[in-house]
Amino acid sequence: MPCHRCGARQTDPVRGASPWRRGVRAGEQVLICPDCQHDRDWTADLAHCAACGSARLARALGNTQCKDCGAQDRVTPETVPDPATGTASRSGLTTLSEDVHAALERHFGQRTD
């Protein structure tokens, strides 16, 4: 999985803790490379734990867990700009059918019967 900010790919891991960080964005786990972590606000577009405010979240089997406090599924949805409309929306708050419907309307346009 590449860095979600710059697209850099991980190389074979060395022994010890990985310098790459995990986060959750738009309901999906993402990785952040060590170079992008030097940016002051590298956590700005990630979801944060509602209990402690940490952005160190991991997703596994549909569950989100905070790596700092251990809280599960208590995250605050981040605001993600929708490239199709240019407006901000809170991620994870739409259903799959709503996403499909919106994609079909964008692709085919509204039909008037």
Q: In this structure, how is the largest beta sheet organized? A: 2 strands, antiparallel
Helix segment tally: 1
Structural class: alpha+beta
Distance between the termini: 44 Å
Gyration radius from CA atoms, angstroms: 17 Å
What kind of assembly state do the chains in view correspond to? single chain
What strand order characterises the main sheet? Answer: 1-2
pLDDT < 50 stretches: 88-93
The count of DSSP E runs of length 2 or more, i.e. the number of strands, is 8
Integer tally of domains: 2
- Would you tell me the overall average pLDDT? 77
Compressed to H and E, one letter per element, the order equals EEEEEEEEH
Helix residue percentage: 10-25%
Judging from the principal axes of the Cα atoms, what is the shape?
globular
Strand content: 15-25%
Biased composition (Polar residues): 86-96
Region (Disordered): 1-21, 74-96
Top keywords for this entry?
113 residues, alpha+beta, 2 domains, two-stranded antiparallel ribbon, two-stranded antiparallel sheet, 1 helix, 12% helix, 25% strand
Characterise the protein shown here.
The structure is a single chain. The protein is of the alpha+beta class and 113 residues long. It has 2 domains: 76 residues, no CATH class; 35 residues, no CATH class. Helices cover 12% and strands 25% of the residues. The strands form 4 sheets. A two-stranded antiparallel ribbon has the order 1-2. Strands 3-6 form a two-stranded antiparallel ribbon. A two-stranded antiparallel ribbon has the order 4-5. It is globular and about 55 Å long.
